[in-house]
Predict the 3D structure of the following.
Amino acid sequence: MQLARIWCEHVAEGCPADLAGIEIAGSDARALDAEITACVSAMVCRCLIVDERIVRRLTEISSALTDKQGHADEHVAAYCARLNKLVSAKLVESRARPRFS
């Protein structure tokens, strides 16, 4: 599963300490990292059904990461690109899975 591989890579890289105070998609970057990691972890462990609310939030986050990447220094831009890769893989994976009502 591509999502699991990208998630493992992201967790191994970690969230840089110098992102404290940077806001992305209405959240502190470190809190956003934790939000995405928890969401992906739940999906990889198959204990989360992705609904439209989650898809909207992930889409909002992806757009904000792209915007932040274009206006940030090299280190923050690289982090945003890596996190956006994880978010995008999460969106692709969630569309491939059947949804339950």
